[in-house]
Design goal:
- The protein has 752 residues and is mainly β.
- It is built from three helices and 43 strands.
- The protein has a 22-stranded antiparallel β-barrel. Strands 3-8-9-6-7 form a five-stranded mixed β-sheet.
C-alpha cells in the first residue's frame, strides 16, 4: 500500500557540466577571494574556483539573499522564480522537507534510500535527504543555483541540478545582526547572529539563533481553529581559526535544527474512490482551489531534530590550495499523520525514523600554467537509516495510538556507502578559446532490509552500482562582453532497492541506475557598458532507465509501491535571464524558462478488473515539469537624509504541472492481454497556473552608529490559491497540500 510519502532524497551535489548564467539580482561574493573592482561583477564558486559569473561556462544563477530578505523571504522556497526552470514546494510529510525540481527533474518522495535528482549543498556539505532542506535565509553569504547534470565537482551525483548555499563566516570583529518579524496567520520570527573576536581575527566565533513559528493558514473544518501550524528552531556556533601569515584557515560549525509542526492535508477524494463511501458527504468531491484551505484531518504532529557538524579547512601552499570538507548530520523524526485527510478514522500512521550521514571531501586546486588550471579530489559518503511504521487501518477510533493498533509494524533498515574520484580542468588552448573537461568515477554500495514485526522478513537486497560520468565544454570570448559556449555532460543517479516493496521478489530485485546525456549551447552578454547582462541557453537531455515510483499488484493489501526503471524521457528547453540597471539605484531583473518533455516506453504492470495487465504511461507528463516558468522584478533605492528607502515588486508565473504519475482516462484494448493505455494523469494531481505577486518597502537608517531597517511586505498579493502537492492512492483516496494564500508582514532589524 502506498502510504507515507514524504521525500527521502539523497542529495547529491554540485558539479560543473552544462552552461548558462546570469544572476538576476545578485551580488554574490566568495568569502575567501580577492576584491573585485567592478561593483556589478558577481563572483561565484560553482566550479570550486573563484571566477566572475559571466566568465563561468555552466548553467548558474547567483542570488542575493539580502534582497530575498527584503521581500519578506524566509526560506529556500522563496528561490522559486529567481532562476528559470526552478520549482520548489514544501513537503509536509517530513521535517523541513522540500520538493525540488530543476529542468523538470525531481524525486517527490520521502524515503531515505534513494538519491534525489536535485542536490542541496550547505557550506560544502551535501544534505542526504529532503528533510532539512527548507533552509532559513537570514545568515547567508551566497546562493547559487546550478541547472542541469552536476556530476563532476560537488558531492554525489545529481542529474537535475544543485542549490549551493554558503553561510557567512565569523568576521573576527564584534558585531550583532538581529531581526524580528510578524505577519499573517500568527507568523512570528526572530533571528540573531553575534560575531565575537577571541584572539583578534586569528580565532573568532559566530553564534546564531533562528526562530520561526506560525499558526498555519488552514482552517479545521470541525473545530474552526487554525491548522497547519509549525515551530522551527535553528541554533549553533561557528569557530574560525586563521593564523596570520600561515596560509591556513578552518571553520568549524556545530548546530541543531528542531521543528515541530501540525501535519495537515486537504481531502480531494472523489466518488470514484473507495474511501468516499466512509466519510461525510461534505468531505468528498471537493475542489482543488479554495476548498483546500479547510481541512478535516485528525491531529497529526511531526517532531524533527537534527544536530550537525561541519569542518572546512583550507591550506594555501602557494602553487596549490588544499581543501578538506567534513560533514556529519543526524536526524530523528517521530511523525503521526492522517493520510486519508478526513474526519473518519481510516488510514493513520506513526512513522519513527533515525538517519545519520557522514561525508568527507578532499581536493586540490591549482595551475599547471597560466593557461591550464585544475581541481582534483576524492569524496566519501555513508548513510544509515531506520524506519519503524505503525498503521491504524479502519479502526474508527482516533484514541488508539497506532503503536497499539498495529503490532505487525513495518521495519526498514538501509545503508549506503559511496566513494568517488573526480577532476575538472580548464585549458586555454588558443587566445580567447578555452576547453573545459573532467569526469567523476562513483561507486555506490547499498543494502536494504524490509520486514514486519510479527510476520517477519519481506525481503532484503544488496547491490553495487558504479559509473564514470564525463563532461566536456568549450567557450569562446570574441571580446570582453560576449561569451559563447557549448557542452556535453553525463549524469548518473545510483540504483537501489524499494523500501515499500511488499513481496520478496520486489524487495530483493534492484532498480538500476538512471543516466542522462545533456547537451547545451548558450551565450552570456554584457551590454550597454555593463548596465545590462543577458544570458541565453538551449538544452537537450536524454534520460535512460528513468526511475519512477509505480504502484503494482502484490503484498497483503493487494498493491505495493516500488521504484521501477520506466523507459526513457526527453527534455528540451530554453532559458533566459537578465539584469538591467537603467539608472543609479534602479534595477530590473527577469527570467524565463521553457520545457518540452515526455516519456518513451514507460510500461509497467498494474491491476485491471482483478487481472495483471501492462499499462503504458508514456502519455503522462513528467511530474513537477511546468512548460513555462517566468519572473519579472524591479527594485528602486533612493538615498535620503536619514539613510535609504528601497521599493521592490516582483511577479512570478508558473505554468500548470503534474504532481504524481497516476491514472487518468484509460484506453482498454479488446484483447485481455493487450496493453492498457493511460491517457494522462488524474486531473486532481495537476496544479493550476500560478501568478504570484510580491512587494515590499524597506527603510534603512543609522541610529547612533547602529544600522536599522524596517520592512513591510506582502506575498501572493493576488491571493492565487491551489495545490503545491497532490496524491492519489490506488483508487482508495486522495489528498493534497495547499500553497500559502495572500499574506502580509513587517520586520524590524538592526546591525552593528
Amino acid at each position: 500500500m502506498n502510504v507515507n510519502f514524504v521525500k527521502r532524497s539523497l542529495l547529491v551535489a554540485l558539479g560543473t557540466s552544462s552552461l548558462i548564467g546570469l544572476a538576476p539580482a545578485a551580488f554574490a561574493q566568495d568569502a575567501v577571494e580577492a576584491e573585485v573592482a567592478d561593483p556589478n561583477e558577481i563572483i561565484v564558486s560553482a566550479r570550486r574556483r573563484s571566477e566572475s559569473l559571466q566568465d563561468t561556462p555552466i548553467a548558474i544563477t547567483a542570488i542575493n539573499a539580502a534582497q530575498l530578505e527584503a521581500k519578506g523571504s524566509v526560506n529556500i522556497g522563496d528561490l522559486m522564480g529567481a532562476a528559470p526552470n526552478l520549482l520548489i514546494t514544501n513537503q509536509n510529510s517530513g521535517g523541513a522537507a522540500a520538493n525540488l525540481a530543476i529542468r523538470g527533474l525531481t524525486y517527490a518522495d520521502v524515503e531515505k534510500s534513494q538519491e534525489p535528482t536535485v542536490g542541496v549543498v550547505v557550506d560544502g556539505v551535501f544534505i542526504g535527504t529532503s528533510t532539512g532542506q527548507f533552509f532559513d535565509f537570514f545568515d547567508i553569504d551566497q546562493i547559487e543555483v546550478l541547472r542541469g547534470p552536476q556530476g563532476t565537482l560537488f558531492g554525489r551525483n545529481t542529474i537535475g541540478g544543485v542549490i549551493n548555499i554558503k553561510r557567512t563566516r565569523p568576521t573576527g570583529e564584534f558585531g550583532v545582526k538581529a531581526e524580528a518579524s510578524y505577519g499573517s496567520f500568527g507568523s512570528l520570527a526572530g533571528r540573531a547572529v553575534v560575531n565575537v573576536p577571541i584572539i583578534g581575527s586569528a580565532f573568532a566565533a559566530k553564534f546564531f539563533y533562528f526562530h520561526n513559528e506560525t499558526d498555519g493558514f488552514y482552517s479545521n473544518g470541525i473545530t474552526g481553529k487554525r491548522a497547519g501550524g509549525s515551530n522551527n528552531e535553528n541554533f549553533g556556533v561557528s569557530f574560525l581559526v586563521q593564523p596570520e601569515g600561515s596560509g591556513f584557515d578552518a571553520v568549524f560549525t556545530v548546530e541543531k535544527q528542531i521543528q515541530r509542526f501540525d501535519v495537515t492535508n486537504a481531502n480531494i477524494t472523489n466518488s470514484t474512490e473507495l474511501f468516499c463511501g466512509f466519510i461525510p458527504a461534505v468531505q468528498c468531491n471537493r475542489n482543488t482551489t479554495n476548498d483546500l484551505y479547510t481541512a478535516f484531518t485528525s491531529l497529526g504532529v511531526s517532531n524533527y531534530s537534527a544536530p550537525a557538524l561541519t569542518l572546512e579547512m583550507n591550506y594555501d601552499l602557494g602553487g596549490v590550495k588544499l581543501t578538506s570538507v567534513s560533514g556529519y548530520r543526524r536526524s530523528r523524526e517521530n511523525q503521526t499523520q492522517d493520510f486519508d485527510a478526513s474526519s473518519t478514522d481510516l488510514y493513520y500512521t506513526r512513522r519513527q525514523q533515525s538517519y545519520r550521514q557522514l561525508s568527507q571531501e578532499l581536493r586540490a586546486a591549482g595551475k599547471f600554467s597560466d593557461s591550464f588550471d585544475y581541481v582534483v579530489g576524492a569524496y566519501l559518503f555513508s548513510s544509515k537509516y531506520e524506519l519503524l511504521q505503525h498503521t491504524r487501518l479502519f479502526a474508527f477510533n482516533t484514541a488508539i495510538d497506532p503503536i497499539q493498533a498495529d503490532p505487525n509494524s513495518q521495519l526498514v533498515n538501509g545503508n549506503t556507502k559511496s566513494y568517488a574520484f573526480f577532476g575538472d580542468f580548464n585549458w586555454e588552448f588558443a587566445e580567447r578559446l578555452r576547453l573545459s573537461f573532467g569526469g567523476r568515477y562513483t561507486r555506490d554500495k547499498k543494502q536494504l532490509r524490509n520486514a514486519f514485526a510479527t510476520t517477519g522478513l519481506v525481503g532484503q537486497g544488496s547491490g553495487t552500482f558504479s559509473k564514470f560520468t564525463p563532461k566536456v565544454g568549450v567557450d569562446y570570448r570574441p571580446n570582453d562582453d560576449v561569451m559563447l559556449y557549448a557542452s556535453w555532460s553525463r549524469g548518473y543517479r545510483s540504483g537501489g532497492f524499494s523500501p515499500r516493496a511488499a513481496t520478496a521478489i520486489t524487495a530483493n530485485v534492484a532498480y538500476q541506475p538512471e543516466v542522462v546525456d545533456s547537451y547545451e549551447i548558450g551565450t552570456k552578454l554584457d551590454l550597454m557598458d555593463r548596465r545590462v547582462q543577458l544570458n541565453l541557453a538551449a538544452f537537450y537531455s536524454k534520460y535512460n532507465n528513468l526511475q519512477q515510483n509505480t504502484t503494482i499488484p502484490g503484498g497483503p493489501t493487494g498493491n505495493q509501491t516500488i521504484t521501477s526503471n520506466a523507459g526513457s524521457a526527453i527534455i528540451k528547453g530554453i532559458e533566459a535571464d537578465f539584469t538591467a540597471r537603467p539608472a543609479d539605484g534602479f534595477r530590473i531583473t527577469g527570467s524565463i524558462g521553457y520545457l518540452d518533455s515526455g516519456f518513451k516506453g514507460f510500461i509497467v504492470g498494474n491491476t485491471l478488473a482483478g487481472a495483471i495487465r501492462n499499462f503504458d504511461y508514456s502519455a503522462n507528463n513528467l511530474i513537477y515539469s511546468p512548460k513555462i516558468t517566468a519572473a519579472l522584478g524591479a527594485d528602486y533605492t533612493i538615498d535620503t537624509s536619514f539613510g535609504s528607502v528601497m521599493a521592490n515588486i516582483g511577479y512570478r508565473y508558473i505554468d500548470r504541472y503534474d504532481q504524481q504519475i497516476s491514472l487518468g482516462i484509460l484506453t482498454v484494448p479488446v484483447s485481455p492481454t493487450g496493453t492498457v493505455i493511460v491517457n494522462g494523469n488524474d486531473p486532481r494531481v495537476k496544479s493550476d497556473r500560478q501568478g504570484l505577486l510580491d512587494a515590499s518597502l524597506s527603510a534603512k537608517f543609522d541610529i547612533g552608529g547602529t544600522k536599522a531597517k524596517v520592512t513591510v511586505y506582502g506575498r501572493n498579493l493576488a491571493d492565487d490559491r491551489g495545490t503545491t502537492a497532490a496524491f492519489t492512492v490506488a483508487g482508495l483516496w486522495s489528498f493534497a497540500s495547499a500553497r500559502e494564500p495572500r499574506s502580509f508582514g513587517a520586520s524590524l532589524g538592526f546591525e552593528f
